[in-house]
Automatic annotation (TrEMBL):
One Pfam family this sequence matches: OmpW
SUPFAM superfamilies tied to this protein: OMPA-like (SSF56925)
InterPro entries: OMP/PagP_B-barrel, OMPW
Keywords: Signal
Signal peptide span: 1-20
Gene3D superfamilies with a match to the protein in the record: 2.40.160.20
Name of the protein in question: OmpW family protein
Organism: Bizionia sediminis
Amino acid sequence: MKKIIFSALLAFAFVFNAQAQENETSKDDYSKWQARFRVISVIPSPGDNLPGAEVNISTTFMPELDFTYFFTKNIAAELILSSTKHEVDVDDALDLGHVWLLPPTLNLQYHFYAGNFKPYIGAGINYTIFYGIDEGAVVGMDYDNTVGFSFQAGLDYNLNDKWFLNLDVKQLLLSTDVEVNTGLGVLPVEVDINPLIVGIGIGRKF
């Protein structure tokens, strides 16, 4: 009987230890890399230093790709890549044509875990390149490339071990100096863009 009890205790200890190791491995197991493809809406909140005039910048919809690397299960860095085209005017009367923005953004994130849900918050920096400029009704437009700041909140929902859905909201604090050549002279303008970026998409872990 003692041998049976002792054998049972050994078996129980072995199973308990194996289960504890499995749980610990599961706790520490995570994918180092993930990528997302989103469709985003970029909604500027424009402002300027022109007295009595208002610069308008159009809302646009574009695809976005991002890559995330996890340093730990909770801490990650995300690089966001996209390019957007915006129409620009003053007081809905003076057409300033359009401009393309290439704003690569690097955010440091903290991820939370709640079952299949993984909310996260982040903050980082942004460098925006202006290109593909159309001058509209003026002779020339020149936008200065600029550095801004990014704030982010989002939610991943796991479909399985590899694929997940994503909802993401970012606020960029972004301003640029613009020189408008009216034909009669060059008018310097400081323009706030400050876009709110709302995206939904799908991601994969690697």
